[in-house]
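Protocol step 4 of 6: structure prediction from sequence.
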Amino acid sequence: MALDFRTLRYFVAVAEELHFTRAAERLYIAQPALSEQIRRLEGELGVQLLRRTTRKVELTAAGEEFLTRARRILGEADAALADASRAARGETGSIRVSTGATAGVEQVPRVLRAFREARPQVALDLRQISWEDHSGGLNDGSVDAAFVWLPFEHAGLAFEVLVQEPRVAALEAAHPLTAHEVLRMEQLVDEPWPWVDTDRRALDFWTCVDYRGGEAARRGPTISSMEGILEGVRAGLCVAAIPRSHAQVSAWPGIEFRPVADLAPASLALGWRVADETPVVQALVEIARRVAAEAGARGDSSDPPD
């Protein structure tokens, strides 16, 4: 015996109306065709579901029981279809997102807030990944999306650049270079720089090897976090180049920040794994793109991407 949802809906309509003509009108089908479908259903089940007379239609005991189950089946089917549709639109499910060293970047909380408002049914798992992994967990698949500072070594990732902002020099307060209001890289290249056990592209960018003709920086302390970098700077063990937004929220005693006229800016992006892209990830990317565009239209302090 093969039952389909259409036949169940036909039966429920007749059982609720207790009138074949009204049920047919409700279903937008011809009354003879509806009567035939119900007779065929009873034949397949081998029971009488409806008692018909010239004056009325009423449910049998078997019909009452079948109506209860039919409504339950159709309700579950409708719920399954609705859930599948919401999942396809990225309105349900879960997502793991790492935020990394993004303190002070206003777009990050704006994106997360807008995502929560737009997708309240999605379970949002926020994670912090060590500074040693500049991919924020994307390279090893431990997160679905990450706010990351470019560049770094990667394969199979896509990025939406949200912010481009200057990097500034972090110096011990007693450092002689704090006497200058604005620095140039030639004043900094021979200083010790913090060392991170990470991929070469990220290390070269953050220790500014391009300004030494490709030569490695004079090695300072090994660190694994932005806080570690600032701790090394405060102790006079190194200088560092950090995003301006992070400097704006790092009011550490004993550290001075100076703009560097010829230092390339840093780019913050939302990254995700292309092979594992889900509707939820797509929704986050679209929201992040919109928030970045709105920030650019407002002329926020962090420079929008070109």
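Step 5 (inspection) to follow. The chain has three domains: 5-88, 93-164+267-298, 167-264.
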